[in-house]
Each structure stands twice: as C-alpha cells, then as structure tokens.
Amino acid sequence: MIVGHKNPDTDSICSAIAYAHFKQEILKEPARPYRAGSLNPQTAFVLERFGVTEPDLLHDLHPKLRDIMIPESELLVLDSKAPLLKAQSAMCEYGFTFLPVADDEGKLAGKITALKLAEMPNEVASMGRRERVEIDLSAFREAVNGTSVTQKELPPQFSGRLAIHGIEGQDRDYKNGGDVMLITPKSDAQRIDEAIATGTGIIIVTACEEIDSAVVEKAGGAGICVMTSPENLLEVVVRATLCMPVESYLQTEFPTFQCDDRVRQVQKDIGQYHEGGFIVVDDDKRIRGIVTRSSFINEHRFKVALVDHNEFGQAVDGIHDAEVTEIIDHHRLGNANTDTPITFINKTVGCTATIIAEMYRVKGIDPEASIAGLMLSAILSDTVVLRSPTTTAVDIEVAQWLAGLAGVDCEKYGSEMFAAGSSLSDVSAEEIVGRDMKGYEELGWKFSVSQIETVGLSFFEERKESLEAALQASVQANGRDFAGLMVTDITRETSLLLFFGAKQVHDAIPFPEIAENVFEMKSVLSRKKQALPSILDCLRSLE
Predict the structure, then answer these.
(1) 98-102 and 78-79: which strand pairing?
(2) Buried (b) or exposed (e) across 190-224, using 16+ Cβ within 10 A?
(3) Domain 66-118+250-296 falls in which CATH fold?
C-alpha cells in the first residue's frame, strides 16, 4: 500500500499514484496507491486533466477479519432445507467441525456441528417413535439407490409419520393410511398388502431390486408411491435419518463477528469461547466468511510505503499496526520509529514527486504522459509554480522534463491548475481549515497549521469570522493548544496567518498583526520551510 498523509494535497495523491506505477511497471513489484482523505478541488482537476482514476480511500490500517477470513466464495454454506447427509459427507471428506447454514434470504440461520452429527445414532433409534418427520425424498432416493416402481413418482419432500417394520417399538400403526411412510423388507408381503389396502402414502421396500407386478398394479391403483432399494432395512433407516433437513438440528446460540472487526480485538475475545471456528457476518446477518483459531497464528500487518510525510501523527489511522517498509519524503524528520531497517529517502527538494521522477530518470525511463503530468502537477502545486523558496534547481529541471513529456507549458498549466483549485465560495469554513491541516507536537505544545492557496484575498476578508470559529472548534475537538490557517495568495506571493489559541504564543508571533488574530507574512509561501520554522522559534523563545 502506498499512501500519503491525512488531508491530502496534490503532491500526496500524485506521488502515491506515480510511485505505485513505478513499482508495478518498472520494478515489477506489487503496489497499489491509496488516499488518506478526500480530494481537494485542485487535485480533482489534475486527475481529470490527465485521465487518472482517484485512488481508493484508506480508512485505517488496522487488520480486519475480512483480511484474514476464509471468504464466502470458498465456503460450503448449507441451505436450511438441505439434508443432513450433505453436512455429514462434507465433514467426513474435509474434516470440518461445523458448517454455516443460511435461510431462504441468505441470512445466517445457524450452524450444524460435528457434535450434533455425533448424536445421530440416538436419532436413528427414535425415528419410528416421532409424531412427524421431514425427509428430503430426492436425496433419500439417491442415497439408497432407490427405484420408483409405480406410475406415481415420489414427491420431493415427505412430511408425516414413519413406520419401520421389524424394529421393536417403531412398527407403529400404519393402518389408518394417509401421511405415513412404511419402510419394510420385501419378505413381509402381508405387511405390504395391508399398507396398500389401508392407503399408506409411501411404501419403501428394502433389500429388493424387483417386486411382484401384482403388487405394483395394486399400489398404483390405490395411488400409492412404491420405491424399492437394494439396501437392507438398517441402511435405509439410517439414510432416511440423514435426509432430514439440517434446520431441525441447528445450533443457533453461538458468537459471531463482523467483517470490519479488528483482528487484535477478536483475537482477545475468542479466548472466552471453546469453538474452533467462528462465522463472520455483515450488518444484514449475511454469511461473509469464517475464521478459525489457526487464522490468528500468523501476525497480520499491511506493508505500507509512506509518501510526502514521515510523522506518524500525520499518517492514516492504525499506522502503528502496519509494517512501514519505505518512506519517501521532503519534509523535516518527525518521530517515526520502525521495528526494522527500512528504505528512507528524504531530500531537500520542493516536492516528493521530484524524488520519484528522479527514480525514473535514474532508470533511463520516460514515464507515460499521464504519470508525467501528475508528477509535474505535484511539483507545481508544492512550489507554487516554482516560485516558493522551497524550489530547488532539481525541481526546475525535473519540472521542465516532465512538462515536455506531458505536453504542457509549466507557467500556463500551473495558472490553470491553481485557478481550478482556488474557488472557495461553496466550501465550508470547516473544510477550508481541515483540507490541508497538519498536526504537530513540539516542545511541549500540541498544535496544527493548515494552508490554503488562493488567487487574491477577498474571500478571506468576507469569511474571517467563520474561519476563526472553525479554527476554535478544531482546537477544542483535538485537544490542541493553538492552531493557525495560512491563506497564501499566489499572485502577490504572500500569506496571511489566522491564529487561534494560547495567548503566550499569539503574543510571541514574529509577524505584524494587521487585524485581530491576523498576521501578515510577506514573501512567505511555504509552510514547512518558512512558517513552521518561525512557529518553532517562537515556541523556543517561550521556554
């Protein structure tokens, strides 16, 4: 997974896409780009301009059950009407200890367990004493190699009483006829005649491959179904038992989990249960997978490459549960710690995309026009069309190379890009403050600095109060000491800083205050190279 920081800007998104492309196409390594937040208008313009699909949103990096479970597509899920024989065969063949069972709507009805099947001898022994049994006759006929010998075929299902000849206590009175199925050996011709005479619904003749034509004619005339089976009486009774529906033997009380439950939490929770496996469902109770205890044996961590940031406080949630394998960045070093050595590339250039573009050049490969366009856009965005003091000779050289590949003019395209992203009339104050916000914890202070780039400052004068209220809400919601919003006018190459929070810090800010809580920062375009160092110097002065 390749992902930039929260509240992503154009560099964060475009660098993730470009680096994933580099790894896939050039290095032949599996990689996929993601985003850690919504696209801002400028980035949306860039992706549309070069015909590139936006990366999927990565909500967090906590491994979920969906990442380790045996998925629904690989499961044997039984229908609640399925015969027990299907469950028994699968358990014997594959060594399953249970099988999930779904109802008519595909929702979890329960599960059939090997323990329940182990109780089947008791069921066989009591079959003939039940007031009513349900039997899947289609499955039963196949299981006992049955042959219908009357014109009237067996129905697909049987529901009624069972009479078993030759087993004491289960040879019930079948002489009332109706919904009775008689299982009897061929040797008892008198019993068969009596059953036909009284209108028994179904007669199963065991240990028999052929039956007298007179019997067949008599049964057919009475509208009775007769089936013969070469199997002995005991075999037929056992098979009849196994052709009862699983819904009659379901276990319905047991723990279940959901696809988005975190692996670490579930691993703790299952300790209180004795089950070997657990069914995973969605919000609608549909079966989505199964996890067993062995699913948790191996450590499950996503492999992640971070671009355009190295501070875990700016990373997608759950970064500490992931395995960070690479960092490619152009910011100051933060507090990221890793368990093992990693590839860490950090250069003093104006943009992360500059570093990635150099990788292509080192390989002697020209990226395709769309990828070149994305990297160029990132560079122009981060360097304010190569005017920011963060701009280096390398940025300029790389930008010109990429512009040629993308077929655009840096100055003209840069102006179009910033114009597309500078309209803020329909954007809420909260979104403006949160769009490109970075949080910091330095020198005992917790704070954030947001930045928005505009063409002109008229909108700021109109919306100062709502922006200040949004800053205040952000400080309070995140437990910070203060927050600042940089409003950068790319035409005048200057910024305003709207401040809310600690009065000590407010009074120490080394820029002129031109209105209440508004500081003018002439020639300041860069947050990381100009604004943040000034704020850190301010905090040091308070020690």
Answers:
(1) parallel
(2) ebbeebbebebbbbbbbbbeebeeebbebbbebeb
(3) CBS-domain (3.10.580)
- Single out the residue of 45, 54, 42 nearest to residue 384, CA to CA: 42
Amino acid at 531: A
Report the C-alpha gap between 263 and 370 in whole angstroms.
38
Q: Which two tokens stand for residue 525?
A: 């375009």
Mean pLDDT in order along the chain per 10 residues (543 residues): 94 98 96 95 95 96 93 92 92 91 93 89 80 90 93 88 70 62 84 84 89 88 91 91 91 94 92 90 95 84 94 91 94 81 94 98 96 98 91 97 97 90 79 88 92 82 90 94 92 89 93 94 88 92 87
Distance, in Å, from the CA atom of 311 to the CA atom of 351, rounded to the nearest integer, reads 16
120-247 has which CATH code?
Answer: 3.40.1390.20
- Is residue 164 a contact partner of residue 181, using CB atoms and an 8 Å limit? no
CA dist 359 and 373 (Å) reads 16
DSSP assignment of 245-314: BGGGG-B----EEETTSBHHHHHHHGGG---SEEEEE-TT-BEEEEEEGGGGSS----EEEEES---GGG
